[in-house]
Design goal:
495 residues; alpha/beta; Leucine Aminopeptidase, subunit E, domain 1; Aminopeptidase; nine-stranded mixed sheet; 21 strands
């Protein structure tokens, strides 16, 4: 889709706008010096009559004053970057869906204090507006529309740091839109090799290196776990390596991200129920987030090298498919008893983690739509994190707080490892049904050598929206790409 907003700055409102955006917190208007006395009284009366308190992510078009959009940012005592993002995403979506709006304006409330710096808030707002307005329109006819000119006013926004933050946000958002368009493609158009081809094209545009292991190369590399999943489909699997060298070149150890990319997950022989199976085109979300993270590192010119390993397969129940009870050998030599072919993501991640570890990175983070259990535990508001290094986990959680892509840590005690021991092999690919998210992490831990900090992010509850929301369109979210870019910019692992 075309860019939804073009951001501009002026010392004071131009008066040539179709819509003025106002923030609401605790039932009160924030700022609004551009309002006349009569407009303010009318809006305050409407807020009281409508009982519009300004819950984060809610929007309203009051009819008492023409051309006003109200966006709630939540209660002052519960202010958080995630709620601030949701508010601006909802505002961006409302403006986008209004259709005919060509100019909108927002005057920063100078008398209001926030617990986050103005530049950071402005960047989050700009990026959230842009992403909130995103819509996957590849298969819709007659859907093109022009950009809305969005005017920022107020003395607080004149600082160079604010403008730099917004320009950075525009780079982030443009990258996310580009990758979201790929992530939302259906499986009939995007299989593993098609994903590899698109990744190569993006790599060239961003000055990245890209290597792809096909079936023959994977067999030679002894990636038996990955190949065991891929062989049920007529479309061959592959392993994609994408690398950004960093602004400082080889002086720093790379950070490694590993992303699960199952372009469609039928469950294999352990076939999924038919209801909602269409959402399984998003089982590639971990790989798409990893792709976006490396692109962001390059386009933001981060100092750290970042490398991504993306195992890409289609999990299908073909005649050559792996069966429950089969035993396969991973690249690191460990044997795995496959008890359920629908627990395929951890199999392909096993070989990819081993490959990533062989580069001796400063740290490894893997991302996967791994378990339905994480949705039971955390719903759709947070991503679960487990890991072998508490400092790494804390680093990631802090970046999640900063970007609004929140994490919640689950334990990874040795007792859980017992649940993943195989009856006839080193490991089994599912546990006994309890602690599913944790045991999935316990399985993956077996493929990370001691001494390498590692964390696993289970994004099954946060990777996509199933239906239209005030703050976003159905489809891929690319959580936690922004978190990973922020972490890569801040962390001192391996320095």
């Amino acid at each position: 889709m075309s860019r939804p907003f073009e951001f501009h700055w002026t010392p004071k409102p131009s008066g040539r706008t179709d819509v003025r955006l106002m923030l609401v917190r605790d039932g009160r208007l924030l700022g609004g010096p551009s309002l006349s006395g009569g407009e303010r009284k009318a809006l305050e009366a409407w807020l009281k009559a409508a009982e519009f308190k300004g819950k984060a992510g809610t929007v309203a078009w009051p009819q008492t004053v023409a051309g006003i959009l109200l966006a709630g940012i939540g209660e002052e005592k519960e202010f958080h970057a995630a709620r601030w993002r949701r508010a601006w995403a909802a505002a961006g979506r409302a403006l986008f869906q209004a259709g005919a709006i060509r100019r909108a304006a927002f005057e920063w409330p100078v008398e209001t204090r926030f617990p986050i710096e103005t530049a950071e808030l402005a960047g989050l707002a700009a990026e959230a507006m842009d992403q909130g307005a995103y819509s996957f329109e590849r298969y819709r006819t007659g859907s093109s529309r022009g950009a809305c000119a969005f005017e920022w006013t107020g003395a607080a926004l004149a600082a160079p740091a604010v403008r730099e933050a917004v320009r950075r946000a525009e780079t982030v958002s443009a990258t996310l839109r580009e990758v979201r368009d790929i992530a939302n493609l259906p499986a009939n158009e995007l299989g593993p090799m098609e994903l590899a081809a698109r990744t190569r094209k993006l790599a060239r545009s961003a000055g990245l290196t890209c290597k792809v292991w096909d079936t023959a190369a994977l067999s030679k590399a002894k990636c038996g776990a990955l190949l065991a999943v891929a062989k049920g489909s007529r479309r061959p699997g592959c392993l994609i390596r994408l690398a950004y060298s960093g602004r400082r070149g080889g002086r720093l150890k790379p950070l490694a991200v590993v992303g699960k990319a199952v372009t469609f997950d039928s469950g294999g022989i352990s076939l999924k129920p038919g209801k909602n199976m269409e959402w399984m085109k998003y089982d590639k979300s971990g790989g798409m987030a990893a792709l976006a993270a490396v692109l962001l590192a390059a386009r933001l010119k981060l100092p750290r090298p970042v490398v991504a390993y993306i195992p890409a397969v289609e999990n299908m129940p073909g005649g050559a498919a792996t069966r429950p009870g089969d035993i396969v050998t991973a690249r690191n030599g460990k044997t795995i008893e496959v008890l359920n072919t629908d627990a395929e993501g951890r199999l392909i991640l096993a070989d990819a983690l081993t490959m990533a570890a062989e580069e001796k990175p400063a740290a490894i983070v893997d991302i996967a739509t791994l378990t339905g259990a994480v949705i039971v535990a955390l719903g759709h508001e947070a991503t679960a994190v487990v890991g072998n290094d508490d400092r790494l986990v804390l680093d990631l959680m802090l970046s999640g707080e900063a970007t609004g892509e929140r994490l919640w840590q689950l334990p990874l005690w040795p007792e859980y490892d017992e649940l993943m021991k195989g009856a006839f092999a080193d490991l089994r690919n599912i546990g006994d049904g309890s602690a599913g998210t944790i045991t999935g992490g316990s399985f993956l831990k077996a493929f990370v050598p001691q001494g390498i900090p590692w964390a696993h992010l289970d994004i099954a509850g946060t990777a996509w929206l199933e239906k239209e929301a005030a703050h976003g369109a159905p489809g891929a979210t690319l959580v936690p790409a922004r978190l990973l870019a922020d972490w890569a910019a801040r962390t001192d692992f391996g320095r």
